[in-house]
Structure formats: structure tokens, C-alpha cells
Protein: Catabolite control protein A
Amino acid sequence: MTTIRDVAKLAQVSVATVSRALNHSGYVRESTQKKVEEAAKTLNFHPNEVARSLYQKKSKLIGLLLPDITNPFFPAIAKGVEDSVNKRGYSLLLGNVEENPEKENDYLKIFAQNNVAGVVSAVQGNTAKMKDMPFVLLDRVTNNQKYAVHSDDFLGGTLAAQAVIHRRPKKIVIMVGPQNVASSLVRLAGSEQVLKEYKLSYERFQTPSFQSDLAEETAQDFFKQHQDADTVIASNDVYALAVMKEASKRGLKIPEDFQIIGYDDMSFSRMMYPGLTTISQPAYEIGYQGAELLCDILEKKPIKKKHIQLPVTLKLRESLREKGSL
Amino acid sequence: MTTIRDVAKLAQVSVATVSRALNHSGYVRESTQKKVEEAAKTLNFHPNEVARSLYQKKSKLIGLLLPDITNPFFPAIAKGVEDSVNKRGYSLLLGNVEENPEKENDYLKIFAQNNVAGVVSAVQGNTAKMKDMPFVLLDRVTNNQKYAVHSDDFLGGTLAAQAVIHRRPKKIVIMVGPQNVASSLVRLAGSEQVLKEYKLSYERFQTPSFQSDLAEETAQDFFKQHQDADTVIASNDVYALAVMKEASKRGLKIPEDFQIIGYDDMSFSRMMYPGLTTISQPAYEIGYQGAELLCDILEKKPIKKKHIQLPVTLKLRESLREKGSL
Structure:
């Protein structure tokens, strides 16, 4: 097996210089850097990550916590995270938490055992548990977190309400996201502000969970509680699709009898017919920028913004009526 | 920091016994095992994975290669893999290859650098590259692989064709999956056998890729080439949905004017209306059993079956017409 000594010998530099060059740590003259990289390439030398990790007390691994890998919003985030960390020389340890605090604890333990350099988490958990690890929170963010990337939930809530008010709503129902997800309440506040301003009455339906596998059951409950709803501001796209399907099964025509707006803009919302109108969150960008922020922290680069807020936009498709008088 | 010596002291056994007990390697009396586990718990002792990995020359990490994390079929596989490996004490390093051989190479290098114990791959790649690592292939499998879990593609192809023949097809088009994915051709053979047996004519459309982000473009190409198609056997669910949407946009009523059957049964195929009839592959089960097989190999357990083939089933929904005469 090729060792760092072989590389040093071929490049005619010291072992310490090879280490600095290949780890991009400390000063190395540009010409030397090139020589070392060429020597490493020639000898097919890849520093062993495990030995390096033990020596440096941290690895080139980053832990990724997702609340639900079967909701397409999160694979899109994961893809953004992955593209960033790979470019910067890290790899991802996957943790799919499924809104299960016990699983979250288990993963944090596993991450610690593997000396991860840091954690990117889209799970709104007890971040106190991560106190020894650099981490960046994505999406489900509250104010008291140090590093976070999320989209503008209040704006999203107002955009969703503004989208329905001019489309002849008869009975508006807001599907409120789970109470333990901070962004749910911020979106609700945004929507309520608009509806109150326009003096439109509305009802609320509490979505118990964001788990994909509960969506169909929840859609049935929705219609039991709100048989006469004709305009729905849904908690996310997965739940909007389930409610839309249940409406169709009940013989309601979309959007004439029943109109709905989702939240997230996952790829499937565009791919069905009628297409789901929704608030687009930049999932890939949230993941990418969150990972960039973490890498900057790990590499002790200057941090310009600790809380990054990305814009959301309305995607109008066929699930809302044409605009008409109020 | 708590060390293995502290645990040994509290449990009143030797360090070697603690190591055997916590690593589940070698004989440990049941009562001793319990004493050690309790001591480790009391002292909040977690063996450092990195040190263990360097010593044992392999880690408790398993690499997972996926072709496209944004196709919901693969997160479902990933969930199965994850549930199995976690139960057996391993963690997952994620590699999303996106049908890019260069990315696959990069991941295999990263996996090697991290001393992964083995690899589970749903990418049909050049497995020769993995010769030094135990690996199990999922889904996109050819016969010359040593360990594999997949579903019965030929059966799937026949079921898809049998589902359409009694539903008054006028012009059948088979969307053939990418040529470099072995299962595409096996499914095609299954469908063709049935159609030939019933002396039904059909045409073929070559799907250039399985990448989700090319589905809409491909659906438009499909209708340019096959304007008069009224019955489609699609290459997978993502592409079936894209074609179904394009048909609806062209004013075709589903299933009266245009009927279609998919392949995979991802969760969204059930959640739209009309629901997509499809061939259900047990994605979670493929992932779970593949990971179990790999763990058995790593733990040198007896291997009952090196190639596991799981059944597929027809899921009838609204995208096909009612049965009628041929």
C-alpha cells in the first residue's frame, strides 16, 4: 500500500508538507501543492479517512438528519446538501428520523461515534443534544438557533391566502401543520393576517403530522370535519394531493367545486393534472446553502450570515379557479 | 471521558470481555453480557467507532448507492436498507449517483477511504470496481452478480401486458426503459411474449433515461412520435405520470381516450386521481432484504440464497379501462 512517505519521496518534500497540501490546511506554495497532488495521483494515493479522522479527532463525515425521506421535499434538500459537501470533500451519513425522537437520539449517538465533523438537520428537534457538534438547521427553524437556513414562512402564509381570496372562496379551511413544527404556526399567522384584513371567515383543521403515510387517512378526516369546504390552504403538498384525491373521489370537480393550494412545490405537484398550485420553497437551495454554511463553520471561514432566509414564490397551476371578483 | 477500562472495572470483568460483549464477537456468558451492557449504560459509554474501525480495518459503515434520490422508488428502497442496517448496528453513507459513472467512481473511492464494511447498490454499474468490498446489488441486476435482490422483471412485463389486452386497446405502445438498465429488456421481453401470443400489434418508444427531471420532456417526445397511441405500457411510474399529464393537457380523457399502466407503484401513483394502475415492486422489501443479505455476509453467517427474487403484483386503479372483449 502506498503511504504518505512514498508521496513525500516522489514529490521531494517533507511528509508534513504532503499532509498540509492534501488536507488543504496551512500554507503550501502553489508549485509545491501541484507537485504533491501529481505525486499522489501517480501513486494512486488516497489518505485513509479513518486514520486521518482518529488523528485529527474529527472526520470528513457530515451527519444529515431528515424527518421523512419518503416526502419528496426532503430528498430534494438532501441532493442540495450532498452536492455541496461532496464538492468540499465531505461525505454524508444518512439519518431518516421519521418524527421519532428516539431515532433522532440514536442517530446523534451514531454520528458522535463516527466523529462526524458536523450535522445538517431538517428535523426540528432538541438541538441542545447537539451542543458538542457544529450544526446547521434547515427548514424547520425557530429563532433561538445559532445557524439556520430556511425560507420565509410568514411570506409563504400570506402568499397562499392572497392566492385564494380573489377566486370566489365560499368556505375557506386552513390545514394547520403539526403544532410541534415551528414553521406551521408562522405560516398560519401569515395566512390569518391576510384573511382578517379582507374580513373573510375561515376555519382551521389541525394536521396531526407531516408523515406521508398518514396523508390519506388525514384527508378522509378532513372531509368528515369540513364537508362543505370549497377552498383549502393545505399544510404541504403531500397532504394537498391526498385531499385533492379525496375531493375527486367524492365527485367534486377541481377547481370549480373545490380549489386547493399546497406548500413546498415538490416535483410531483407539477406532474399531475390538474397541477397543484403551491408555494414554492427552494428545497435544493436550502440544502445547498445549509451545507455551505456548515462547511464554512468547519473550515473556520468568516460567516457572513448565521440565519439565511430564502424567498418563496407562488406557483399558479390548475388547482385554483380563475381570478374573479372577491 | 469514560473508557473501556472504566466499564470493565464497574462490571468486574476484563477489558477483553467488555470488548467481546459490546462488539458481539466471541463467547460471553449471558449474565456477563448483561452486566457489561448495564455498566456501559450507567457510565454512558459508547465505543468510539473510528478507533474501532482503524483497529479492525473495517468500520460499521455501509455505503448506499442510489441512481436518483428524487425518484420516490429509491427513497423507499433506502428506508428498507436503513431499517435493516440500523437494527444490526451499522450506519449508512449516502451516495446519489444520478446515472453518472464519474460520480459512482467518486463514491466508491470515498467509501473505500472510510473503510466501509460493504456496499448496497441500486446502480447498475461496473461492479468490477467493487471487487475488494462485499456488496449486494438491488433492483437493476444482471445474472452475473454474486449477491442480488430484485423483483421478477419478466413476470412484471407479462402482468403489464396482460392487464391491457382485455381493455380494448387500439394502438399499444411499449415505453422501453433505458438500454443500459438490464431489467428494462427483461420486462420488454415479458410484455412482448404476451402481445405476440394474443397476436396484438404494438410499437416501441425508447425512453432515453430514468432520470426524473427528463420525464416531462420525454412525455412530449412520446406524443410527437405516437400521436395516435391509446394504450401505453410505461417504463416506470414517474414517466407514466408525465405521459398521463401530457395526455390530459392534449384533451384526452383517461382512461376512455387514453389508458396507461406504470411500473414501480411509488406512493404518489396511489395518491392521484385517476390513480395510476401499475406493477408493484416491493421497494422497501428489496432494500430491507438486500441489507440483511449484506449484513449476513459481513457477519459470516450462512447464506441461504445469493439471488433473492421478490414477487411483483398488479395494482389496478383508474388509469385503465374496464375489462371488455378483446
Q: What stands out?
A: The mean pLDDT of chain A is 89.
